[in-house]
Amino acid sequence: MKTSWLSTLSCRFSSRWICAILFASCLPAFAAAPPGFTPLFNGKDLSGWRGGDTFDHRKLMAMPEAERAQQIEKWTQSMREHWRAIDGELVNDGHGAYATTEKDYGDFELLVDYRTVPKADSGIYLRGVPQVQIWDYTEAAKFSIGANKGSGGLWNNSEGAPGKDPLVLADKPFGEWNSFRILMVGSRVSIWLNGKLVVDHARMENYYDRKTPIPTKGPIQLQTHGGEIRWRNIYLREIGSPEANEILRRHDRQGYETVFNGKDFTGWAGPLDNYEIIDGAVRCKREKGGTIYTQAEYADFSVRLEFQLPSGGNNGLAIRYPGAGDTAYDGMCELQVLDDHYEKATGDKIDPRQAHGSAYGMVAAHRGYHRPVGEWNFQEVTVKGSKIKVELNGTLILDCDLAAVNQFMGDSPHPGKNRVSGHFGFAGHNDPVLFRNIEIRRY
User: Fold this and answer.
1) pLDDT, tens digit (0-9, with 9 covering 90-100), for 54-89
2) Is residue 202 within a helix (H) or strand (E), and if so which, with residue range?
């Protein structure tokens, strides 16, 4: 059974605080922000907003500064012709560029009310990526594309993907205000519409390039699409890494067992003298290394853990390690644990198949999803048969099948890549990398 997000939050915050969040959107236009939230709309004018469109935010940021400013100005001019502030409401006439926050956001919780008209079609872009769908659930002409299922789904996800369709129909009748609560950590999104869970921790796909994860940061955009829509009580709370990690760790907990007690190395083997325990975490000693591993063996499994890297830090996760030899070659693989800025920190150039999350020497992971050095990262690895997935801080950075690999870094084969069982462990490389909250679930 999946852990309810409401029960998760109940464990962390007072009931008064939760009520403030859940019911803030039921208040009149421009009510005071709930505790911890910041208004994105001041109820009076368009301060803090620019124009935008369905446009890859990464490409926008990669433009030369002058070209980017010119494009934003063009969108903003269109936006200001069709958006206005009226009595605490942000009103769009159904046309023009999208209302887009000037600021970019990473992990966040968003509260927003909206009211629209029959046959309208709109949405909310998260980090500039479409979209949390808003439409007329009674419009029969669009039933074939899911309108009858209601608003709130991640409509631009692939057909059949989790989150594309809302779990329940939660729209209110036209003329009434609807309230969204949206929680986003990495690419994981949970959505409540009018107090009902409609998307549960689904992975939001990158509409602009489905082979690449969504950006770590981007704007909130309110889409216009042919019919008047009104917005009010738009509040956002940025989520820091400790809370983000806890949200990710608490979801779908069933079956996970702790494999490191935080006090000693009970249940572990290997060169344990090369490691130490610091504040409940296991750390490779400086200038020491070697692979330490669980005494238990695993075939198909998921492991969840947190790790913290020093600048230029290097370690690895031993997957189906045989208990001897080099896990990168004799085990199924070594999943790299490496500072994303390793090259800058050390001056050494690496092969893409050496970057963090990569199946060392075989398959490269997507880069750029680490938290800053000194912060704890949350990672989940799933191993089923010859397939491996690595999710870092809520974003899928590796999804590969080692059975299909036939090219290797340095033309060095990996004879262990087809192993079907083995130990889990850490492959230290002289740097004081820390690991904690290590849990494994068998399949």
Assistant:
1) 999 999 999 999 999 999 999 999 999 999 999 999
2) strand 196-203
Q: Give the pLDDT confidence score for residue 18 in this predicted structure.
A: 46
Q: Residue 281 has which token pair?
A: 């975490």
Report CA dihedral (306, 310, 315, 319) to the nearest 10 degrees: 10
Residue with tokens 């992971």: 365
Q: Is the pLDDT of residue 10 over 90?
A: no
Q: Which helix (H) or strand (E) holds 244?
A: helix 241-250
Which domains does the chain carry? 5-239 (2.60.120.560), 255-442 (2.60.120.560)
CA dihedral 73, 77, 83, 89 (to 10 degrees): 40
Is 173's pLDDT higher than 60? yes
Q: What is the pLDDT of residue 225?
A: 86
The CA-atom distances, in angstroms, between 167 and each of 114, 313, 336 are 20, 42, 37
- Rounded to 5 degrees, what are φ and ψ at 73? -65, -40
Query: Residues 124, 126, 128, 131: what is their CA dihedral angle, to the nearest 10 degrees?
Result: -50
Contact in structure between 198 and 134 (CB atoms under 8 Å): no
Beta strands in 226-325 (DSSP E): 229-238, 257-258, 268-269, 275-278, 281-284, 289-298, 301-308, 314-321
For residue 98, the surrounding DSSP H or E stretch is: strand 98-101
**DSSP SS3 for 293:** strand
The tens digit of pLDDT for each residue in 103-125 reads 999 999 999 999 999 998 999 99
Coil, strand or helix: which one is 418? coil
Closest residue by Cα to residue 244 from 377, 443, 335: 377
CA 37 to chain centre: 20
Phi-psi region of 49 (alpha: psi -120 to 50; beta: other; left: phi over 0): beta
Alpha-carbon distance 136 to 327, whole Å?
55
3-state secondary structure of 272: helix
3-state secondary structure 346-363: HCCCCCHHHCCCCECCCE
Closest CA to 75 of 224, 230, 236: 224
Is-contact 338 314, C-beta < 8 A? yes
Q: By the 8 A CB rule, do 98 and 52 touch? A: yes
User: CA 404, CA 418: separation in Å to the nearest integer?
Assistant: 10
Question: What is the chain's length?
Answer: 443
Is the Cβ–Cβ distance between 68 and 55 less than 8 Å?
no
Q: Which residues pair with 40 in a beta bridge?
A: none
Asked whether residue 8 carries a pLDDT value surpassing 80, the answer given is no
For 238, the 3-state DSSP assignment is strand
Identify any residues that bridge with 314 across adjacent strands, giving them in sequence order.
338
Strand partners, 114: 178, 231
